[in-house]
């Protein structure tokens, strides 16, 4: 076949200079309670640790002054109040700015004890995006919130960045917070869909702003990304998708294989791919061959071109209809700006995907401040004192311990984990049973149906998904599990309020949406012992699906014994304390606050019954009738939305005629609004779920309003 050649020239940013290449196009392509023994897990005596030292973190961090003894000097960053101030900075100044952003974020990371590593990795990329594009006119959308902190700093929020998720800045991108955040993001995988919607709206309104979306490795595990990309390719509307490839993998063995490398050639080819001339040449070549009736040849020529210029896997995005450019060194500002300038100049060329390679530990080796911050967040400190610090165990710790015990007795038990991040607690099961632990990442829909398949194959899957992320897989829960009555055991983590993660990861709705399913058993433990019992119970249910929820954070008890459980009777609650005046029926973790309310009320001479419902579905009908028969006042308490446990109790009371008699019942649930980030105790107070709020509600029912008001003051 004959060969054709084309001269392609591209002129890039200032000192980058111009380059000219001749490209040979070779004919075809480019590129629930029982006493049981407990084993001591931790040899160190708990009494040796003060209450202040018993915290929910895995280990304590040294004072930030150990790594940042002096104020960080950031002269360039100090001069940047908004993205417009980036426009006139030289390349040297832009490079210095990226270093200063890393120092700033690292300093904040040490003080707040939150990891900003993902944002550290995209310092140059964030700068390049804001240098080339004109936000807020141009719309810049992010999938992963962990990558947005440099963006927040550059868009006028630097002074408040230390308040992130602490009654200050939102943990996610938020349009009410800043005009530079055109769309709210948090759970990932939504930016391409939202960006495409904005692009279509722009086209229909005859506007010209650019749409830029930034996605990550984690979000590419979610099917919505590919649905959106395919649709973007179909509509062929102008938008830029930037894939930030930080080379993360769920499976270390995969990471040991070859990675997409950045070389001088790939850098040059990325610039070539992004050039207007090359784009136009491809379109013209395809059009000519189609005009002369050579449609198959046109397709082959374009396919060959895509495969030759792009790296392996580039054609996946091209087949979805996105023009692939890359890989680009995500820490080379010159290349980033050059490629993004070329992309920004393209008109009527459809969706483009720019593949950017970044590293989270970039610049750490030669910077002791960054290295110290990284080591603390990776648990790699050389200080023996840090490793020896005791920590208060979490519900997840107890869940995994109980699950390991069950798995050692039942070889059919396997686990499927889904969500953005895996808690360190789950490493115990993974290390003990590496062939029975499946972490699928941000692929909750797949996790649910995969678990159903495992069950149909004769195994006993525990599907572990945070409450907020289970929302994404509800259709699969309904049709692939509950409707078919397949015994999948859902362990719903991070249930209820989640403190600094605010409404984005709040698990408010799972009681409601799981308890309305006909075949689902729904339960919640009041403490770590009950959690272990429910794990044992779930392991023995093999005729229907079951779910149990537990909150984020520390357990109720103060000991450090391994949690092992005994099966409990399905639909059976229990009375923890008896009184004659008021009955408090708690569900899940709120049982503990009911006990606190009982203590407060007892000081006022009020005798209170506290019961642990354990089950939302099936309800303990006998217990409910007993509480109504023996009390005139009943309060149900749950850390969930309207429509949950209290609604099931109301439905039973109404049908059973209990509300026709003497009983006065009040439900306490989460308010019908989203609760912003705050400390867990502050969020409970806002929601009206503290022991004082429950006690005040009881006093109001008893007609003792003055005492109720005094209790809340």
UniProtKB/TrEMBL annotation:
The EC number(s) this enzyme carries: 2.2.1.7
Domain named Transketolase-like pyrimidine-binding: residues: 393-558
Catalytic activity: D-glyceraldehyde 3-phosphate + pyruvate + H(+) = 1-deoxy-D-xylulose 5-phosphate + CO2
Cofactor: thiamine diphosphate; Mg(2+)
Keyword Kinase part of the UniProt annotation: no
Pfam families, A to Z: DXP_synthase_N, Transket_pyr, Transketolase_C
Compartment(s) where it occurs, according to its Swiss-Prot or TrEMBL record: Plastid
EC class: transferase
Pathway, per record: Metabolic intermediate biosynthesis; 1-deoxy-D-xylulose 5-phosphate biosynthesis; 1-deoxy-D-xylulose 5-phosphate from D-glyceraldehyde 3-phosphate and pyruvate: step 1/1
Superkingdom to which the source organism belongs: Eukaryota
This protein's record includes keyword Magnesium: yes
Any one GO molecular-function label of the UniProt entry: 1-deoxy-D-xylulose-5-phosphate synthase activity
Gene Ontology CC terms, in alphabetical order: plastid
Record key words, sorted: Isoprene biosynthesis, Magnesium, Metal-binding, Plastid, Thiamine biosynthesis, Thiamine pyrophosphate, Transferase
BP terms from Gene Ontology: isopentenyl diphosphate biosynthetic process, methylerythritol 4-phosphate pathway; terpenoid biosynthetic process; thiamine biosynthetic process
Sequence similarity: Belongs to the transketolase family. DXPS subfamily.
Subunit structure: Homodimer.
Protein name: 1-deoxy-D-xylulose-5-phosphate synthase
Organism: Rosa chinensis (China rose)
